[in-house]
Amino acid sequence: MKNFFSNFFGRNNDPKSIVSFDVMDLIYSELYNGNNNFEFKMKGVHDTISVSLYSFPSSFDHEEGRAEIKKSGFKNAYEVLNEIYKKINIGPVSEEQMLQELEYDYIHIQFYTEPSPEAKKYLKHVLHNFMIFFCCTNSLETNDFRMIYNNSYFLDYTKGILEAESIDVNDPKNETQKIGFKEFEKILQGICQHLNIALPESVQLPLQENLLPEEVEITQETFEEFIRLVSRGSIDEKLVQKQSKKLLKNFKKGHTEYHEIVQGHWAFFEIIDAWNSDWKFDPEDAEAFISEMIGEDLNFDYPEETYSHDLFPYIQSALEKRGFELMSYDTHGDNYLFFVANKSDVARILELSELTKIEVDSL
User: Fold this and answer.
1) What positions does the domain DUF7821 occupy (predicted)?
2) What is the DSSP annotation of 81-117?
């Protein structure tokens, strides 16, 4: 009955949803009483997920924060908070409360997803920022929350949070939000698993599985499997053994410098059918090099004046008919290192990419 009346009066506390006050409050308690800033990995999620508990005004009480506040046209952190509260229909912090130097906590969750089909022409991954602010709805006690969101990098944190928009996760405004809002539910489940939070039985979980990566020992066999898959089994077994030993040795060194990390990877990709291309390439180049990689003529239809990454959908469509997919080693530069994989192997290649730290992208 309590939840019924809470929802009747507009609270974000659907007992079946993981995006509810009860769940947010459990996460908040763990952050407040334990580690208030951490990162962790989840299966199928690019890079790490960042979870932080921040507070107005203390989290902004440093030289850089004060400079950002002034640059944004405000006198103090409370004024920034009140500007955010306007967007999400929360009453402002009063002068009296400011003088009491009260703290107002919020949670910032940051993670990456795959881009929408349109954005895939320009981006390999999209960053999502969710900021959760707590409030009171028809109560004198905190019993509700509001969220703001953006998908930009916070180079100026104050500016970033001010530019974030009020959201309802059930009402995305575009494809990027649709992808991010759906993934947000899984991210919350992963956070709860990471923090060992026991969720209410009423919550309907997005996935009925462990979302955290198991501890996997990286061995020579791990690299052997990766080599066989990305080469589509075209490499002699002796060479597989030789290259897997080299890649494992490079992996165990734990390099942090870019050139040291990629040196061994480049040497490996040079021995398989790969195409190193500038970021600018013509459709004729793509047809020629991919035909060579798959050992058969590949022709695909494309609109006039279409070049480079804009060709990806047309290339992939043509390759899919043959059971292939174009992939790329992430050079972190302005060039591509393309290779062709069996469509059925792509998911496993991406899993092995995470394990071996050989960064491979699905285009």
Assistant:
1) 22-197
2) HHHHHHHTT-PPPPHHHHHTT--EEEEEEEEEEPPPT
For residue 251, what is the enclosing H or E element?
helix 237-253
Q: How high is the pLDDT of residue 285? A: 93
| Inter-residue contact 108 to 131 (CB < 8 Å) | yes
Residue 11 has pLDDT above 80, yes or no: no
Q: Residue 180's pLDDT band (boundaries 50, 70, 90)?
A: very high
Q: Contacts from 120-126 at CB under 8 Å and sequence distance 24+?
A: 120/312, 120/363, 121/309, 121/310, 121/312, 122/309, 124/330, 124/361, 125/46, 125/47, 126/151, 126/176, 126/179, 126/180
Cβ–Cβ < 8 Å for 115, 125: yes
Dist CA 115 CA 305 (whole Å): 24
pLDDT single digits (tens) 197-254: 999 889 999 989 999 988 778 999 999 999 999 999 998 999 999 999 988 988 888 7
Write out the E strands in 12-137. 37-40, 49-56, 104-113, 126-135
> pLDDT at position 361, please?
86
Q: For residue 238, what are the contacts with CB-CB under 8 A and spacing of at least 6? A: none
- CA distance linking residue 37 with residue 150, whole number of Å: 20
Average pLDDT, the chain: 89
Give the span between the Cα atoms of 336 and 123, in whole angstroms: 13
Alpha-carbon distances, residue 153 vs 38, 77, 185 (angstroms): 18, 20, 21
Give 203's DSSP letter. -
pLDDT of residue 255: 64
In the prediction, which pLDDT does 107 show? 98
DSSP one-letter string for 149-160: EE-S--SSHHHH
CA distance 242 to 240: 6
* pLDDT tens profile 117-134: 888 777 888 999 999 999
The end-to-end CA distance of the chain, in Å, is 49
